[in-house]
Amino acid sequence: MAEATQATPMTNQAAGGTKPRSAPRLSHVQWVICGVAALGFAFDLYEMLVLPVVLRPALTTVGGLEPDSPAFNRWVGLLFWIPAIAGGLVGLLGSYLTDLLGRRRILVWSILLYSVAALGASLSTTLTQLLLFRCLTVVGVAVEYVAAVAWLAELFTDPKQRQSVLAYTQSAGGLGGLMATGGYYLAVTYAERLPEIALGHDAWRYALLFGLAPAIPLIIIRPFLPESPAWRAQRATGWVKRPRLAELFEPMLRKTTLVTTILFACTYGMVSGVLLQTPRVVPGLPEVRRLAARQIEQAVGSVQFIGELGVLSGRLLCAVLIVRIVSQRRLAQLFYIPGLLVIPFVYAFAASHSLALFSAGVFAVAVLINGPATLLWNYVPRMYPTRLRGTGEGFAHNAGSRLLGAFAAVATTQLANVMPGGGGPARLAYSAAAVALLLYLIAAIATFWLPEPAGEQLPE
């Protein structure tokens, strides 16, 4: 197909000038590739954000646990942390296989894995079963994200087009949160009209079952998806060797690996330890405490929806900025440094004073957390060579986000048990503020050591 060109945004140069660039238009196949990637990213985030939405009814229904009790908090921590650990450990293996066996193959199988696991989670009748299937779900998500980013980065060779494709397809992840909130609302509204799951019409089960959706179009589209040409070319010449984890810590890559791992840990620690705890903070607000049970749920859903708009806005904002700001260090600091002040304020003050103020604050928090998440996934493919790209991405993400960052959920929920204050929601909010301050302080400092990419082209 003949390729036309279109103007892309002006790019700031290191010297301070501007230079117009153009990139080829996307072909029909490339649009399909972007659609598959966007679908995968949306359901990746759906699978992560549906948990805090369904957690309260699932624990009370399956486990018979009293909300905000020590046992309830313990299971909340376990359901956030144990699947993250499983995802991190198996995700490291999946990243290795992405470099060894190819991006497309691992991408497809990982999406199928978490789709089937979502079905299992919806049928769970014990907390142990729910924990097991959540582990398999997060394993699939952890592997899929790494494979998808490496795949996209290598399929689009024009630097500006690649940056835009990576940023905007990841922005679709912001729809995952809206889907989680909307899906649960529809499940609550129409559960009685749907077929029974596990001998009942529990809305949270239908919300988990919806995670099976991406497997259906994927099975149809899979034969038309190409493999990464860069990986395929190196495989054909015998250049693809078994990647070694130790290579990530050799002098050329050591600083990149360490700093990106720290930033992933802090960013995703903020997600699990702060943002995902928000639905449990809302019932403690002065205006909400006086409401009836149904109205409390509506208030929680309203704040959750505003937060999901912030998720989408943060990713779109980073997508716009990422092709305009050359310095990756400066772009990271635009999100991390304001977060030092904004996020602790929202949870330490707004969470105990005003529903309107807290809602606006949650929007800002979601923007400041999701901007760096998009930035990091655009950044890491530019720092590792083709034969180590999946392994490098996977280590930074899985060791940082899953093995280290996810512990923030345990820290927040357990610290809430000893925090001073009023009821459980207030103590949880103060705990989230303390965890947020520590994580963003570490992240802001780490950005000063973030290496800049050597150029716009991917290293071979």
Brief rundown of the structure:
It is built from 18 helices and 2 strands.
Which descriptors would you attach to this protein?
mainly alpha, disordered N terminus, 460 residues
Describe the 3D structure.
The chain is mostly helical. It has a single domain (26-449), classed as MFS general substrate transporter like domains (Growth Hormone, Chain: A). Helix content is 70%, strand content 3%. It has 18 helices and two strands. A two-stranded antiparallel ribbon has the order 1-2. Strand 1 and strand 2 (18-24) form a beta hairpin. The two termini are 27 Å apart.
Describe how the helices and strands are arranged.
Elements lengths: L4 E8 L5 E7 L3 H35 L7 H32 L1 H20 L4 H29 L3 H13 L1 H18 L12 H7 L5 H7 L7 H8 L17 H20 L4 H4 L4 H4 L3 H30 L5 H21 L6 H25 L9 H17 L1 H9 L8 H23 L14
Antiparallel strand pairs: 1-2
